[in-house]
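[worker-b] picked up task from shared queue
[worker-b] task type: protein-ligand structure
[worker-b] ligand name resolved to magnesium ion; SMILES cross-checked against name lookup, match
[worker-b] sequence length check passed
[worker-b] input payload:
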Amino acid sequence: MIEVQHLTKRYGKVTAVDDVSFRVEKGEILGFLGPNGAGKTTTMRILTGYIPASDGRAIVAGYDVFDRPIEAKRRTGYLPETPPLYPDMTVREYLDFVARIKGVPASDRKGRVDAVMARTHCADVAARHCGKLSKGYRQRVGLAQAVLHNPDVLVLDEPTAGLDPKQIIETRELIRSLAGDHTIVLSTHILPEVAQTCQRVVIINHGRVVAVDTPANLTARLKGAETMYVQVDAPGADVPAALGRVAGVTRVAPADQRGAPGAYEVESERGRDVRRELAREIVTRGWGLLELRPMRMSLEEIFLQVTTEEHAEEAARA
Ligand SMILES: Nc1ncnc2c1ncn2[C@@H]1O[C@H](COP(=O)(O)OP(=O)(O)OP(=O)(O)O)[C@@H](O)[C@H]1O
Ligand SMILES: [Mg+2]
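[worker-b] inference finished, payload out:
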C-alpha cells in the first residue's frame, strides 16, 4: 500500500533523510520512531507530496507521489505536525470546507462532518473559531480533517502530541479502529505509543533506518530472549564458575541491578532455553534460587542501543 525506495532529502549540506526504504502493507499501522531531527516529518512530507525528494521514490495507494500527485493525494489523509487550520473559520465551517475541497458529495457532507467530529471528540467545539482552540483541540480537529474523506492511507505526524492522557488513549483507540480499512503511518518519539498502537516499527536516526521490526521482535531481538536474570542465595560460593559450567551457557556476568547480592546475567547459545538446567544446578548445590527469568529489553533500551550504536559507528568512521 505504501512503498518507499531509497528516499533521500537534502537541504543544502544537511541530509535530512538518507536512503530510507520501507513498505507498509494494506491495513497495517507502521510506527515511525526517532529522536528530534531524525527525519520523520521530512519523510512524511515527501509521502504526502508536500515536498519533493532529492532521490528515490514513494508509491502510495498504487500511485507514485511525484508522477501522479493528484491521485496519490486523493487517497491520503495527512495530519501535519502543525494542523492546517483557518483561524477565522469555526470548526464546523472548516471541516465543511475541507469536505468540499476533498470532493465529498454535497448530500453526504453534513453527515460526514458530524460523524467525524463525534469520532474525534471535537463536536463540543463545532461553533468555536479554529484560531481560539487549545492545542489539544487543534490536534483533534487536525485528525478530523485527515480522516474526513475516508482515505485509504493515513499519514499522522505525532498524532497524540499535546493531548491530555484521556485523549491520548482515545486517539490511540481511534487509530487502531481505523487500521484494517486504512493503512497508517504515524510518527512519534513516545515508545509505549509504538508498542501499543503499531504492528511494525521503523526506527530512524540521523535520517537513516536503523531497525525495522515488530515491537515484540525488537524487544526480543537485540539482547533479550537468550539472557536470563538469576538471583541466588549462596554466600561465599563461586556462583559464576558453577553456572558457567552448565551445558549451553556461554557467559555469566554480575547483573547490574544496583548491586543486588547474588544477581547474575546468564547468556546462553541462541535459541537454547537453559532455565531447567540452571535451576537444577542451583538447587542441587543447596543454594537458594531467589529469581530466574528471561531478560527482555524495553523498547527504551533498544531505542537507545540502536541510536547510540550508530553514534559510536559514526564516531569510529570520523
Ligand atoms: N526546510 C528545511 N530546511 C533545512 N533543513 C531542514 C528543513 N526541514 C528539516 N530540516 C532538517 O532536517 C532534519 C530532519 O528534520 P525533521 O523535521 O524531519 O525531523 P523529525 O524527525 O520530524 O524531528 P521532530 O521529532 O523534532 O519532529 C533536521 O536536521 C532539520 O533541521
Ligand atoms: Mg517532526
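[worker-b] attaching auto-annotations
[worker-b] The chain has two domains: 2-213, 224-294.
[worker-b] releasing lock
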